[in-house]
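Observation: inputs received (chain + copper (II) ion).
Thought: call the complex predictor directly.
Action: predict_structure
Action Input:
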Amino acid sequence: MSIARRVGIVLTVLAITAVHTPSAAPAPPPATPSLSLTVVAREFVYEPKDLLAKAGEVTFTVRNTGAIEHDFVVENAAKKMVAEARPFPAGKTVQVKARLAPGAYVVYCSIPGHREAGMQATLRVVP
Ligand SMILES: [Cu+2]
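Observation:
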C-alpha cells in the first residue's frame, strides 16, 4: 500500500470520527476573564450560567430575551449585594457596573420564585 493511500485512509477515518463526535453541546467560548460581560436573562436562566470576570470595574450587559420582567443581582461570598439592576421588562437591555475584587460571587434574579426556578449563575472574578 502506498503512503498516499494510507494517508487517505487515515484522513477518511478522522473525517468520520469528526462527523460522529457528539455535537449536542456547542463548544463553550474560551474562558477569558473580561471586564465586559454579556448575559442573557430569560425564563428561568441566565446564559452563560458560569461567568468569568477580571477584577476591577466590571460592566454587565444584561439582555432580557424572555417574555416577562427580570432583574439582576450580584452577591459576594458573604451574601452582600454588590450590584443590582432593578426589574426590567422583556426585550430590554440594561447595564450594571460593579467594582469587583477577586473572589466567588453569585448572580441571581430576585423576583420571587425566579432564582428557585433556576435564574442563578456563578461569577468568578480573577486578578
Ligand atoms: Cu427573573
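Thought: report the result.
Final Answer: Residues 44 and 117 are 6 Å apart (CA to CA). The first helix runs from residue 3 to 20.
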